Description:
Blueprint: H1 6-17, E1 31-32, E2 53-59, H2 65-72, H3 75-80, E3 84-90, H4 93-102, E4 107-110, H5 112-121, E5 127-136, E6 138-142, E7 157-160, H6 166-177, E8 192-195, H7 201-207, E9 212-216, H8 219-225, E10 229-233, E11 244-251, H9 252-257, H10 259-278, H11 280-295, H12 301-309, E12 311-313, H13 319-332, H14 347-355
Amino acid sequence: MPAIRSTLLRRGTAALAALPLLALAACGYGSESQDDNSAKIAAGAEKTDGLDTVKIGYFGNLTHGTALVGVQKGFFQKELGATEVKPAVFNAGPSEIEALNSGSIDIGWIGPSPAINGYTKSNGKSLKIIGGSASGGVKLVVNPDKIKSLKDVEGKKIATPQLGNTQDVAFLNWAAEQGWKVDAQSGKGDVTVVRTDNKITPDAYRSGSVDGAWVPEPTASKLVAEGGKVLLDESALWPDKKFVITNIIVRQGFLKEHPKAVEAVLKAAVETNKWINAHPDEAKAAANKQLATDSGKALSANVLDPAWKSIRFTDDPLAATLDTEARHAVKAGLLEKPDLKGIYDLTILNKVLKAEGESPVDDAGLGSS
Length: 369
């Protein structure tokens, strides 16, 4: 079965080992959200599938807004009844996949590249993608004094969040399409790729150690607040300006043993996305409030407002674009050709959508047989 190249795996393991102690606390891999969901359990509510808790993982990124808003507004807790939601916040995809594999979380919001990596590393046994969450929200932001056009990116230092992550793959693919050669592992070439944690990318930009960054929101808007200029919105590179940035994944054992709990979470996700799209300003405020709860600091309006506008929240996993992103990773030399057949199981999601009077979503031929 195809696997991730060993160098990438070693670096992913090293990234996990380098996470701060806080990120390894509570649930085992991610920092536990401080939100007290037990206070939101309705009187007389019953447990779902007999479970005491359902452990949900996500990143402190606005592209994980479905999870942020769903936790903050109590959508997940409402659907799970007396089964308590236990949120855990992660900084990187490899650590969330490890948490899923170990049982430290049951369901997670995650980008396409970590989902692909987790699936292929386990020979298709660890996870399933069970729903979509968000599209867009990724931009190339540059120092306008150094880079005035797309061709000026050549020879410059551009940050991406992590070797082999979704934005890293996207930037390497875009650079190759410009005719530039870059060694994917070292990041050296006609453009220098500097793998930098999103939390410190604004500092790196401010100090001049990078000339720009291909990053998700809210990091992109943080760079704009530092004087950066949006040179390219990644959505412009995709048909209909849609591409998957966040999916919902589940541990296969949990899916098999607790389908009612999975259905409750997916129903809550659909309801959350519907509420987000109907109440964008309230949803934006709720996401920011949850970010403050999780990190201790809310986003300023000049960062939050443009970041939120660039993200589309959707139940559709946009499966065809995940397949394309996998091919981009293969082309960059970060992934051996994967067999993604079976990575999706959209059965429960389509059941929920039908009950809501919505159209079913497609797995692009990559569903369970």
